[in-house]
Every structure is written in structure tokens, then in C-alpha cells.
Design a protein that fits this description.
Length: 486
């Protein structure tokens, strides 16, 4: 088969560790489209040998696999700070920072804003997909009002979590930037406009004219929980309604720039002077409220100070179902109308590396999702036992798989339960169900503080897309409960 050469990209991506030309982006992801446009512009303008890309932490983290140019990987939120260093140290280079809306709008907002205010000579490409993509779809500063994310399951409520942050409009209050624009990649026409805007950004950097910000509205089908076409429509209808497209400033072209004196006289001119790009009106589609429609609607948590907070840690190897076990307990708490948080932690590997999650269940709003001293620790392997056993609270419980050698006892006052979860799952002919075996132990020992009925309901709900497996796991749960604990 003849492969088409993609300008500006490596023709294979060996840095990914695979002999492939396939990127890591999901189908319909805005990053994938923008990555190609950036590579094309850089190559078409003959800038590959002069360009230094500063890569973010977020879904754009692997652009150094793809773009054939120089790269620096910055820590999360620090791409604009790193780009400041690059463009000062190498004034001859074309420096481009690439950042997501969590990266730039949340943790990295101040250093991005200050770099813009100083007029550092780099271009910043800002991908706004309205949430944290890489980490599983949490709320970002740009999340729309009412938008459901994993951390705003009832929709973003401005009274609790504020209003969406308009980065272009905020940066437009600064004196130094020479170019500020917002585009989108939600359809072909917009993609062409986006390419022109990226080109313009490269032109400005090629001539070392000053700081430029290009915000790009991008669909994230996976975390919107929509197919690629519907995700693009969501981007057009809902996101553009909140974040209008346009060139907010292009100093050379006389768009949207006033001197401080002029602005003092007429403070609203910057935002009103955005020249809005002509885009076709599109039909209305499913709103964000429908995104999580498949999840059972449960009334919000009830405030009940008599229910004390319980903190859990679940740990094991990735692939042992430890994160879903934690999620099942959190889901049971939701069914019980408790406040609850589930906080996963894992390495970059999808399988095999260490994985753990923290769960907090309480009758009152929860302050922090981190669990340093769990009441209950569930360990599926030796490294997690070694790592967390000393942290368990006095009066707490450690449930550990019976295959794990007990090299040291838990602290005084902590109950140790060795439970043959892996063996039972194996004996029952479903080795993958070891996490369900652990749930049986939690239920049998009564250490979740949640009703058995809700734990079972949550187990079944976790297999909502494969109901037969839900029934099977419930059966296995009951069989395991009949076993005796060591
Ligand atoms: C200092 C630090 N805090 C938090 C994280 C976890 N983290 C990794 S990516 C990310 C957010 C990514 O969201 P965004 O910047 O919007 O990019 P997207 O993945 O949506 O493209 C977070 C919070 C981290 N890696 N480092």
C-alpha cells in the first residue's frame, strides 16, 4: 500500500517504542487534527530546522513522537515558562509552546499570563477541549456551565466551581501580545481557518514580532462520551456559544490593539473589537446534560454529620481491576447518597504497572481527595502492601491477597485479613474477577460502612454495558462471601 507522506511529521514514530505511523490520539480528537496542521505549516514555511516546540503534559505530551523539529518537554503547566527560556536563549529560533486548557488555564495560568504580559517572543497554541483529557475528563477552568465531567457529575455549577475562563478575552487586556485569536477544528471550513491562523502565528514568530496566543476549540469524543461527529457538533454549538471565534488582536493588521491611554478612555473596546470569523450556523445537537445519560440518575448527597468519614486505599497491579473496585465502592456510596470521591493514581502504562486509588466516603462535604492514612487498605500485590501498610489508621483494616508474603505486621491496633482473592477467582474459573472477590471481603467484614444492597447494586452497575457479566459477578460475590476469612 502506498503511504502518503505527511509534511513536517516523522514518517514513522519510533519514539513511541512501536514501529507505527499511528498516533496515540483517539478517533475524532482535535489534537490529532491540530498536530497535522502545525506540522504542515512548519514544513511548508521551511521552518523545521529553526523551530523548537515546547510540549505540555496532557494529551499533547507526545508531540515529540510526531513533529520533525526540536522539542523540549515541560512539566505540567510550565510550557510557557520553558518557552520563555528557549526564546531568550535562542532568539534566532521559532519557539512554539503547545498547551491544553488544564495545562495553561489551571496549573499554568500565571506563568502563561506573565509571559504574555512580558511579551515574550514565542507563539502559544492553546487547545481548549473544555476538560482534562489525559487524566480522564475532569473539569477544567474552561468547562462550560452545566457541562458534566467526572468531577462535575451533575454539571458545572458556577456557584461552586465558577464560570468558564475566557483565556483570549483575559489575555486581550494585556498590552504586549501582538496576536490573539480563537479558532476551531470542528469542521472542514474551520480547519482551513485554523490552518491560516497557525500560519499567521508562525509568520509572527519567524519575524520575531512578539507574543502570540492561538486558542483552538477542539472536540474530545472520548471524554464528551459522544461519537466523533456529535463531539464536533458539541464543539460548534455549545463551546462556540461560550467561546466566540475571532481575531481579538493582530497588531500589524490594526485589529484590536489600543494604547493604554486609549484603553483608559474606553475600557470595553478590546473584547468588542474582536473580528468574528464568518462561520456557518449549525443545527442544535444533544446538550452536555445528555452526555452521562446512561448513568443512573441518583439524587445528590444528603448532609448527615452523624456519618463519619471513611478513607480507603486500593492498590495492586494495573489490570487487576483495582481502580474499578474503588470506583464500585464510591458508586455504592453514591447510591447511599453519601458524599464520595474516587481518586486514581497510575503510571503511564495501561497494564502491568502499579495502580492505586483513594476513595473517601462521608456524610458531609469532603475537603481533600487524597488518602494518606486509610481506614481500610486493600492490597492485591506485595509492592502495594509494603508501600501502604504502615500508613493504616489505628482501628483500621488491611485486606491483603493471601499470596502476598507478610514481611512485616501492620501497625498496632490494625486488623490484618489475608483473603485468597486471586485463588478464589482462579478456582471459580474467572481469574479476572479477583477484584469482585475483594469486594466480597469488604462486604463480609462490613468495613465500608455501606449497605450490602448498595455494594451489590454498584457491582452490577459497573457492568452496565455487559449485563450478563454483572449477573455472573454477583453470583461469584455470593460464592466468595460463603468462604471463611483467615
Ligand atoms: C504537577 C502535575 N499536576 C497534575 C498532573 C496530572 N495531569 C496530567 S495531564 C493533566 C491535565 C491535562 O489536561 P489539559 O491540559 O486540558 O490537556 P488535555 O489532556 O485535555 O489535552 C493533569 C492534571 C501532572 N502530571 N503534574
Amino acid at each position: 500500500m502506498k503511504t502518503i507522506e505527511q509534511k513536517g511529521m516523522y514518517q514513522k514514530f519510533p519514539r513511541s517504542g512501536k514501529d507505527t505511523r499511528v498516533t496515540h490520539y483517539c478517533a475524532g480528537c482535535g489534537h490529532g487534527i491540530v498536530n497535522k496542521l502545525i506540522a504542515e505549516c512548519c514544513a511548508e514555511m521551511g521552518l523545521q530546522d529553526r523551530t523548537v516546540f515546547v510540549d505540555p503534559v496532557g494529551c499533547g505530551v507526545f508531540t515529540y513522537y510526531y513533529w520533525d523539529a526540536a522539542h523540549i518537554s515541560a512539566a505540567h503547566g510550565r510550557a510557557s515558562a520553558a518557552a520563555t527560556g528557549v526564546c531568550r536563549a535562542r532568539p534566532d529560533a521559532v519557539t512554539i509552546a503547545y498547551q491544553g486548557d488544564g495545562d495553561l488555564g489551571a496549573i499554568g495560568f500565571n506563568n502563561a499570563f506573565q509571559a504574555a504580559s512580558r511579551g515574550e517572543k514565542f507563539g502559544c497554541i492553546f487547545i481548549n477541549n473544555s476538560l482534562y483529557g489525559m487524566t480522564g475528563g475532569q473539569m477544567a477552568p474552561t468547562t462550560l456551565e452545566g457541562e458534566k465531567t467526572t468531577t462535575t457529575p451533575f454539571g458545572r455549577d458556577p456557584a461552586l466551581t465558577g464560570h468558564p475562563l475566557h483565556v483570549c478575552e483575559v489575555f486581550s487586556q494585556l498590552q504586549a501580545p501582538v496576536y490573539i485569536a480563537r479558532v476551531s477544528v470542528a469542521d472542514t471550513k474551520r480547519i482551513m481557518q485554523c490552518k491560516q491562523a497557525i500560519r499567521r502565528m508562525f509568520e509572527i514568530q519567524q519575524a520575531h514580532k512578539g507574543y502570540a496566543l492561538l486558542e483552538i476549540l477542539a472536540p474530545c469524543p472520548t471524554n464528551f462520551r459522544l461519537d466523533p461527529l456529535k463531539a464536533a457538533e458539541f464543539c460548534k454549538n455549545e463551546m462556540e456559544a461560550e467561546f466566540p471565534l475571532g481575531v481579538f488582536r493582530d497588531v500589524e493588521k490594526g485589529i484590536g490593539h489600543e494604547t493604554v491611554d486609549e484603553r483608559r478612555g474606553e475600557s470595553s473596546r478590546v473584547s468588542s473589537s474582536a473580528s468574528v470569523l464568518a462561520v456557518n450556523p449549525v443545527p442544535q445537537v444533544a446538550s452536555c446534560a445528555e452526555l452521562f445519560a446512561e448513568k443512573e440518575a441518583v439524587p445528590p448527597a444528603e448532609n448527615d454529620p452523624s456519618v463519619h468519614e471513611r478513607r480507603f486505599k486500593f492498590a495492586g497491579y494495573g489490570g487487576q481491576g483495582i481502580l474499578s473496585l474503588g470506583l464500585t465502592v464510591a458508586e455504592a456510596a453514591r447510591f447511599e447518597r453519601r458524599y464520595t470521591l474516587w481518586f486514581p493514581s497510575y503510571g503511564p502504562e495501561q497494564r502491568g504497572g502499579s495502580a492505586s486509588c483513594s476513595v473517601v466516603v462521608s456524610g458531609t462535604p469532603i475537603g481533600s481527595p487524597t488518602v494518606e492514612h486509610p481506614d481500610v487498605l486493600v492490597c492485591m500485590n506485595q509492592p502495594s502492601y509494603e508501600r501502604f501498610v504502615d500508613d493504616v489508621k489505628r482501628g483500621g483494616t488491611v485486606i491483603v491477597d493471601a499470596t502476598v508474603p507478610i514481611t512485616r505486621q501492620p501497625p498496632e491496633g490494625v486488623k490484618l485479613v489475608q483473603w485468597p482473592a486471586l485463588k478464589m477467582a482462579e478456582d471459580f474459573g474467572v481469574p479476572k474477577a479477583a477484584n469482585t472477590m475483594m469486594l466480597a471481603a469488604l462486604k463480609k467484614l462490613g468495613c465500608t460502612g455501606l449497605s450490602g444492597e448498595n455494594l451489590e447494586k454498584a457491582l452490577v452497575a459497573s457492568f452496565a454495558k455487559k449485563p450478563a457479566l454483572g449477573v455472573k459477578n454477583l453470583e461469584l460475590l455470593h460464592k466468595a462471601e460463603a468462604e471463611t476469612c483467615a
